[in-house]
Amino acid sequence: MSPEDEKYYENYLDLFLHDGWKQFVNEAQELLNSYVIEEIKDEKDLAFVKGQRSSLLNITRFETGIKNAIEMESEDA
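Given the sequence above, the corresponding structure tokens read:
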């Protein structure tokens, strides 16, 4: 792994240790869980909810994605 890549991943690993990150992810998860399919009014609302869920899933899965990338980089070395 290059020094630049190592620094890139270290910055994220440092971020994931902060209480603010955990709070941010928990709030995103709560919003994600708040969407109830039965409450979707119409196709426009469905499109909105779909976009919101996609963004929130990206947030809640980000840490895992970074850790998986680090693992893959380590295996390639």
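The radius of gyration is 17 Å. Try to locate this feature in the token string yourself.
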